[in-house]
From TrEMBL, chain A:
Domain of life the protein comes from: Bacteria
Top-level taxonomy: Bacteria, Bacillati, Bacillota, Bacilli, Bacillales
Keywords: ATP-binding, Cell membrane, Membrane, Nucleotide-binding, Transport
Compartments, record wording: Cell membrane
GO cellular component: plasma membrane
Protein name as catalogued: Oligopeptide transport ATP-binding protein OppD
BP GO annotations: peptide transport
SUPFAM superfamilies documented for this protein: P-loop containing nucleoside triphosphate hydrolases
Membrane topology label: Peripheral membrane protein
UniProt organism field: Oceanobacillus oncorhynchi
From TrEMBL, chain B:
GO annotation, biological process: peptide transport; transmembrane transport
Coiled-coil annotated residue ranges, if any: none
Matching SMART domains: AAA
UniProt keywords, alphabetically: ATP-binding, Nucleotide-binding, Transport
The species this protein was found in: Oceanobacillus oncorhynchi
InterPro entries: AAA+_ATPase, ABC_transp_ATP-bind, ABC_transporter-like_ATP-bd, ABC_transporter-like_CS, Oligopep_ABC_C, P-loop_NTPase
Domain of life: Bacteria
Keyword ATP-binding on entry: yes
Molecular-function GO terms, alphabetical: ATP binding; ATP hydrolysis activity
PANTHER family linked: TRANSPORT ATP-BINDING PROTEIN (PTHR43776)
Residue intervals of the ABC transporter domain: 4-253
Family the UniProt entry places it in: Belongs to the ABC transporter superfamily.
Pfam families the UniProt entry points to: ABC_tran (PF00005), oligo_HPY (PF08352)
Protein name: Oligopeptide transport ATP-binding protein OppF
Length: 335, 310
């Protein structure tokens, strides 16, 4: 049997602006295996959260085309009653903001039990409480019996994020989507939460999609990485290949703009991320931000090309890309 | 004489309680912090949320009341609100964290950037417009956008408009409170480069407040690490990153994600070692209340919070 957990094919998620649909996620194809962490990186507005929400079918007004199948069940066409059965059970999500994702009027214990109650009717009240305490223990919350009775405002940000993780993993989901799980947290707590996610992967063998804009987090966590720009995946590769040999101009620019050892000036990507309405729909979407690369080097309808086994890059412009402030690279021409 | 000299700064917030709503206790947000700034240098203040780093910055500029201690700016005492003269307010400016809430959405860019000019300099409409256009040129925002409103700009552009406002009066000291933490990496790069450029041009001094050690390492000459209102370590960037002494500093440095996946194993082991050391040697570094000790010099530039010997 194959190891494939989630399969997305030609996914297009569009939103309506002034009577017209604009695709925020455009032609995304990817697979996720069991026991694998797939990192998705990109700047704000690149469509990474829109993609996560599409998988969970959490968009209320979006038009979703294409195919998303989890364990061979098509999520796109699934009726709501069925969806409610698998959401929180087979697939679950860790939300970004621990301050708003919890209900401020409900004790922590009940918020976790709610998820158990909805998906596991066999568990009695006592069983649910036992499992909840167990979960709180699992995510590393000290004195779980006390926290069980407490309200969200009594906990710190890191603790709240752990509660959200506890809710997400309550029913041992097979697919776990973590949407910027540590962005709102301090570095030391971030390190703890990331360790926790790694541990969970080993314990429940889930497939995890980790969405983040922090390249360091991806480098430490992911098995494979997809880089998104303007709604498309521009590069996807195993993590060591992506960091050792980044190919797409966007990936390279992003990596170059992170402060590292012995760097005087940081690389700046020209221009801005285009808004949904102004997205170039034909040609290479990154072209306007690297104007020094000749137009003839871009493809008309860029597709993902497999450069090495498992390493895909969109458009052919990467072959001719160089950083304008790097004289050497410019003169040598590029391979 | 130091350019800015902060001596034993304390900022306490009262906790009110009881029937009469009397002050029952204090939160010691900043609990005895001292440092000196040299002109033209960048000074980093690092800590986790709640460590008091923002409060320190806000107290220096006068947005919080100082409980005790002294702030000397160019040798003049500016601790008290009344002592903050017009000149001081002109020379010290602030860049705020959130570019989405620090610009008034109902004002045009022209009015936002010109506001400090209107307060301190009497300029004609035409001169004012010219100055604003110059400032927008410096921060690389196209100068024909002076009649636009903040919502028409991206996060990076907004942050740069905030910077244009901060440098409008040619200040000497800029307190930058997490200036890039709300921005994407590529935009962050733009703002950081830009802060370095104008520093050279205008001989600015920065008090750079941030929780991101990577950014601080890139920007700062000197760094202080703050924990629960006190300093745990103070030194040059080299001292802090190559020779960290305090367990809390080590822990912060270990927590930075490494950008090379090849180092993953090593980093993981390193972090576990540090976590172990932290648990085992906690009592050596913190007193009975979980607070840091006073600073002891270990070299001419490097100070660490350790219990007094003996």
């Amino acid at each position: 049997m194959s190891n494939e957990l989630l399969k997305i094919k030609n996914l297009k998620t569009s939103f309506r602006i002034d009577d017209e649909y604009y695709a925020a996620v455009d032609d995304v194809t990817l697979t996720l295996n069991k026991n694998e962490i797939l990192g998705i990186v990109g700047e704000s507005g690149s469509g990474k959260s829109a993609l996560a929400f599409s998988i969970m079918r959490l968009h209320t007004r979006a038009k979703i085309e294409g195919e998303i199948s989890l364990n061979n069940q098509n999520i796109v066409k699934m009726p709501k009653s069925k969806l409610n059965k698998i959401r929180g059970d087979e697939m679950a999500m860790i939300f970004q903001d621990p301050l708003t994702a919890l209900n401020p009027l409900m004790p922590i214990g009940r918020q976790i039990e709610e998820n158990l109650f909805l998906h596991n009717k066999k568990l009695g009240q006592q069983g649910r409480k036992k499992r909840t305490i167990e979960l709180l223990n699992l995510v590393g919350i000290p004195r779980p019996e006390r926290v069980y009775e407490q309200f969200p405002h009594e906990l710190s940000g890191g603790m709240r994020q752990r509660v959200i993780i506890a809710i997400a993993i309550a029913n041992d989901p097979e697919l776990l989507i973590a949407d910027e799980p540590t962005t709102a947290l301090d570095v030391t707590i971030q390190a703890q939460i990331l360790d926790l996610i790694q541990e969970l992967k080993q314990k429940i063998h889930a497939g995890i999609i980790l969405i983040t804009h922090d390249l360091g987090v991806v480098a430490e966590m992911a098995d494979r990485v997809a880089v998104m720009y303007a709604g498309q995946i521009v590069e996807i590769a195993p993590v060591d290949k992506l960091f050792a040999n980044p190919l797409h101009p966007y990936t390279r620019s992003l990596l170059n703009s992170v402060p590292t050892e012995g760097q005087d000036r940081l690389h700046v990507i020209q221009g801005v991320v285009p808004t949904l309405k102004n997205l170039p729909r034909t040609g290479c979407r990154f072209a306007e931000r690297i104007p020094w690369v000749d137009a003839s080097h871009h493809e008309e309808n860029p597709d993902l090309h497999e450069v090495e086994p498992g390493h895909f890059v969109r458009c052919t412009c990467y072959k001719h890309f160089y950083f304008p402030d790097n004289k050497e690279e410019q003169e040598n021409g590029v391979s | 004489m130091a350019f800015l000299d902060v001596k034993d700064l304390q900022v306490y917030f009262p906790i009110k309680g009881g029937i009469l709503n009397r002050t029952v206790d204090h939160i010691r947000a900043v609990d005895g912090v001292s440092f000196e700034l040299e002109q033209g240098k960048t000074y980093g203040l690092v800590g986790e949320s709640g460590s008091g780093k923002s409060t320190t910055g806000r107290a220096i500029i006068g947005l919080e009341d100082v409980t005790s201690g002294q702030v000397l700016f160019n040798g003049k005492d500016v601790t008290d609100k009344k002592a903050k003269t017009k000149d001081f307010r002109k020379d010290v400016q602030m860049i705020f964290q959130d570019p989405y809430s620090s610009l008034n959405p109902r004002k045009r860019v022209l009015d936002i950037v010109a506001e400090p000019l209107r307060n301190y300099e009497k300029l004609s409409k035409l001169e004012e417009r010219k100055r604003v256009q110059e400032l927008l040129d410096i921060v690389n925002v196209s100068s024909d956008s002076i009649f636009k409103y903040p919502h028409e700009f991206s996060g990076g552009q907004r942050q740069r408009i905030g910077i244009a406002r901060a440098i409008a009066l040619k200040p000497k000291l800029i307190i930058a409170d997490e200036p890039v933490s709300a921005l994407d990496v590529s935009v962050q790069a733009q703002v950081l480069n830009f802060l370095q450029e104008i520093q050279k041009e205008l001989n600015l001094t920065y008090l750079f407040i941030s929780h991101d050690l990577g950014v601080v390492k890139h920007m700062c000459d000197n760094i202080s690490i703050m924990y629960k209102g006190r300093y745990v370590e103070q030194g040059s960037t080299k001292d802090i990153f190559e020779n960290p002494q305090h367990i809390y500093t080590k822990r912060l440095i270990a927590a930075i994600p490494d950008i090379d996946p090849k180092n993953r194993e090593r980093q993981f082991k390193f972090r576990q070692e540090i976590a172990k050391e932290y648990r085992e040697s906690y009592d050596r570094y913190f007193d009975g209340n979980g607070l840091a000790f006073g600073l002891q010099s270990i070299s001419s530039t490097h100070k660490v919070a350790l219990p007094e010997k003996g």
